[in-house]
């Protein structure tokens, strides 16, 4: 039994995003007492020498490993849920977690179609016995409240018609709101909220083009941020969420899965790659 | 309960033929139109329109619009539309006035059920290629715009559950806002536009128990403040819609206020819902039956049509 090879394989199984379940089975399940001791001694990233004479597993590593093992489970569950339930649960969780997670609420409110968002609101009634706007209005205390409630309540017109004059004047309004940001936060400005939350998406696109893009992160930019081992947990979670919920848009955008190959691992990787491949098959030739 | 009188057996083909006959030749047989349409519910009216379209390759609504005129035409036009479509038309008319009819928008968003309001929003988009909230936002300004947009965008939870702790604290919040005359306070708008109707009623009840007087009495109606007026309307619609509708009818008949369309609007929109209870309330409040008051106040085909919707026998 070549311990160094197994040590390297074990390290590899625990790096990346997700864990390599198959390797772990073949290595760890087949290890005896001596093997495991040599792992612990040889793996300084995971274990440190405790003064009381044993190799202790780093506390934060334990925490991180839990998250990595969970990743596959979460991806599967997220994928299985009806989109309406999925979105309702994502919103509720983000809202409870607090301000740093409000971007998830914005993401859902803005990327779903009008009827998908409506469906999520209905599912929210069933799951939580309150309307989503009711909960948002009570739980979000800061300056984001008005905008979030407005975004989530939207039932946007989905036709292509756009009025150029209105586009120009609303681009002006937005630009003024941003220019005056030191006097008053743009997301609290009533006119800004009205424009962002009530206008149709083609209209808003025209407004953005006219204004020259206000902070518009494309889906692929979000993913790139998450696909780094050093990325924070939220960015990594975004990988699951964005790929599972936006498969269609990603494949349309021509997102190349080879970035994933190198960095994801285990069942989690297989599941994510499988989801994208399935979506590829749906693409018209 | 509904007031219209609908026969057990209905033939849509015969109805379509009868309506065609009523519109042919010189003049129009208004009585025939009333006797058919005034006795059909929404689902039946839809079938009649389809049958008419199939038989005569013509839109019944357009035909009626060209044949009829005045208050009668307006009433029949509103009556024949699907309820959601009708509300969309009413909302659009209210929005586009040079001085928008806020109370109509509030009436629609606060007295319809959450599902009905969603249907109105869909119908509005189909008809006007804009979202309802978009048009409301574009035609109003300031605090009243904020209030109206959140009211039309609401999808309230429809359940019976009430949280008494929340009712207590929100009754207090409303009381404080009223006391400080800070009516457009964000918290007031939040409570009014997001809470379920049952929860709001509990809050209003608690307010009344605590303050000894109903909340509407403390929101003066005669002030010129349009936001305050709108808030008052919203509270009344949410708290006791039938009582609100009775008041609209009473004001319209007595010609107090400026809601000229109120009589038609309330009768047409409630005839299949709760006009019976509103009639009872009217009698209690005015000691005169609503039928009688309407008959005295209107004339001709318009009068005959309204009375038919009120359930008068031919």
Automatic annotation (TrEMBL), chain A:
Keywords: Annexin, Calcium, Calcium/phospholipid-binding, Metal-binding, Repeat. Pfam families: Annexin (PF00191). It comes from Durio zibethinus. InterPro entries: Annexin_repeat, Annexin_sf. GO terms for molecular function: calcium ion binding; calcium-dependent phospholipid binding; phosphatidylserine binding. GO terms for cellular component: cytoplasm; plasma membrane. GO terms for biological process: response to cold; response to heat; response to salt stress; response to water deprivation. This is Annexin D4-like isoform X2.
From TrEMBL, chain B:
It comes from the Eukaryota. Ca(2+) 1 binds at residues 25, 27, 67. Gene3D superfamilies: Annexin. It holds the Pfam family Annexin. Keywords: Annexin, Calcium, Calcium/phospholipid-binding, Metal-binding, Repeat. Belongs to the annexin family. This is Annexin.
């Amino acid at each position: 039994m070549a311990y160094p090879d197994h040590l390297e394989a074990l390290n590899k199984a625990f790096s990346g995003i997700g864990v390599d379940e198959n390797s772990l089975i073949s290595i760890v399940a087949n290890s005896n007492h001596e093997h495991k001791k040599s792992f612990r001694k040889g793996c300084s990233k995971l274990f440190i020498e405790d003064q009381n004479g044993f190799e202790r597993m780093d506390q934060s590593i334990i925490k991180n490993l839990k998250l990595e093992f969970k990743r596959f489970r979460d991806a599967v569950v997220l994928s299985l849920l009806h989109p309406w339930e999925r979105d309702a649960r994502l919103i509720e969780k983000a809202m409870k977690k607090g301000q740093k997670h409000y971007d998830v609420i914005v993401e859902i409110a803005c990327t779903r179609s009008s009827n998908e968002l409506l469906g999520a609101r209905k599912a929210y009634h069933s799951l939580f016995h309150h309307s989503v706007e009711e909960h948002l209005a009570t739980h979000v205390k800061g300056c984001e409240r008005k905008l979030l409630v407005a975004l989530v309540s939207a039932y946007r017109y989905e036709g292509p018609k756009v009025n150029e004059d209105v586009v120009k004047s609303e681009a002006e309004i937005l630009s003024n709101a941003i220019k005056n940001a030191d006097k008053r936060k743009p997301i609290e400005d009533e006119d800004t909220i009205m424009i962002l939350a009530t206008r149709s998406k083609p209209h808003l696109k025209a407004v953005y083009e006219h204004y020259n893009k206000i902070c518009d992160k494309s889906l692929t930019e979000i993913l790139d941020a998450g696909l780094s081992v050093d990325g924070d947990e939220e960015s990594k979670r975004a990988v699951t969420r964005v790929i599972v919920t936006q498969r269609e848009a990603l494949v349309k955008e021509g997102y190349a899965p080879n970035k994933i190959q190198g960095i994801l691992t285990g069942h989690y990787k297989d599941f994510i790659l499988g989801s994208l491949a399935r979506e590829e098959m749906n693409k018209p030739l | 309960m509904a007031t219209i009188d609908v026969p057990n057996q209905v033939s849509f083909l015969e109805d379509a033929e009868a309506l065609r006959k009523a519109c042919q030749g010189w003049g129009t047989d208004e009585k025939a139109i009333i006797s058919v349409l005034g006795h059909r519910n929404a689902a039946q009216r839809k079938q009649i329109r389809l049958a008419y379209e199939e038989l005569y390759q013509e839109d019944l609504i357009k035909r009626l619009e060209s044949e009829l005129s005045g208050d009668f035409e307006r009433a029949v036009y509103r009556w024949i539309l699907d309820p959601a479509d009708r509300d969309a038309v009413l909302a659009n008319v209210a929005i586009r006035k040079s001085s928008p009819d806020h109370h109509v928008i509030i009436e629609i968003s606060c007295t319809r059920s959450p599902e009905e309001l969603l249907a109105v929003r869909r119908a509005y988009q189909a008809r006007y290629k804009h979202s309802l909230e978009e048009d409301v936002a574009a035609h109003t300004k300031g605090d009243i715009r904020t209030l109206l947009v959140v009211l039309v965008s609401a999808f309230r939870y429809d359940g019976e559950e009430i949280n008494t702790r929340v009712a207590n604290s929100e009754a207090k919040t409303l009381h404080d806002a009223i006391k400080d005359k800070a009516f457009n306070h964000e918290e007031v708008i939040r409570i009014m536009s997001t809470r379920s109707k049952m929860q709001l009623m509990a809050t209003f009840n608690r307010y009344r128990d605590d303050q000894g007087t109903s909340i509407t009495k403390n929101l003066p109606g005669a002030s010129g403040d349009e936001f305050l007026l709108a808030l008052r309307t919203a509270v009344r619609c949410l708290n006791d819609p039938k009582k609100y509708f009775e008041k609209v009818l009473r004001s319209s008949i007595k010609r107090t206020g400026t809601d000229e369309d109120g009589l038609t609007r309330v009768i047409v929109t409630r005839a299949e819902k709760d006009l019976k209870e509103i009639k009872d309330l009217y009698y209690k409040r005015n000691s005169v039956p609503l039928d009688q008051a309407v008959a005295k106040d209107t004339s001709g085909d318009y009068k005959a049509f309204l009375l038919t919707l009120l359930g008068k026998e031919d």
